[in-house]
Amino acid sequence: MKPKKSLSPTVIARVADHQWHALEDDQVVGRGEAWRRHDGRLFVSIDAWHDVVFDQLAGAMLADADLPRPVYTMVDESDLGLKSHWERLGFTTRRREWVCLVPTDPRTTGLGAARPPSGVTILPLGTAEKGPLRELDRTIRAEVESSVGWQEMPAEVLPRLDDATVVDPTKYAVARETESGAYVGLLRVAPVPRQPRIGLVAVRADRQRRGIARALLAEVLGSLHRSGVRAASAEVAEGNAAATALFDNIGAERAGSNLEVVLH
Prior knowledge:
This protein has helices at residues 51-62, 80-88, 106-109, 130-146, 212-226, 241-248; strands spanning 11-16, 19-24, 27-36, 42-48, 71-76, 92-103, 120-123, 172-177, 183-190, 197-203, 231-237, 253-263. The chain is α+β, with helices and mostly antiparallel strands. InterPro entries: Acyl_CoA_acyltransferase, GNAT_dom. Residues 120-264 form the N-acetyltransferase domain.
């Protein structure tokens, strides 16, 4: 953001539910938005060209009765200017989320020899059946909600959606038990331009610590490597020791971090 130079008065207008515009001479010079995530928490974002406009938008939004506390937002930790704006408004850091670059070359990850445990088969991206995949997705999400809670999951992992949570099996690799046919683990890949993103790696609670997550990563990263992709991205919550260790052990590099900040 830049210091404001215009002498025109700034008008803050609420243009829709949970949407605000900052106007100067009928031109939009800033936008604010608030939305409630599926875990029930209220998040806000502000996009403004000038520092003063940012403060004016934030003041109007946070004074609105429809934005009860606590209120959250995500900030790139390296963006010191934006971070200081939110801190000046009273926001404090609640948690950190690492942004990782994950190599795909099995010579780097050490996953070339990784195999699923006995009795488990890895289904490559796009080969899972939608019905069993939805059932597994609901099971894993229920387990997360009853344990750490979705507020501790990376921002890109969407919680508690409706029955259409899994609409595109091409984005999922799955671990399936050979004898029962039950799906017990999944890995979701978002096909972001230029660099795929690993959105979620999860294994049913009663099937964990058997190497299933490593086998899923071996399949997906190996497939990406063969298609010419050198690295994928992933977000890992700093407080998730198991996920941090999993990605550290395959050579993932921490390329940055996001902070979840909150105003109580």
